Amino acid sequence: MPEALTTTTKTADYMGRLVVTPATDARDHMARGCLAGDRDYLGRPLIGGGTQGVAPSTAHVDHLDPDHVVAGGMVSVIVNGSGFQPAVVVEVVGVGTSSNQSWISANQVQTNYLFPQTVGVYQVGVRNPGEALSNTVPFTVT
Question: Which of 13, 17, 109, 134 could form a disulfide with 125 if both were Cys (CB 3.0 to 4.6 A apart)?
Answer without folding.
Answer: 134
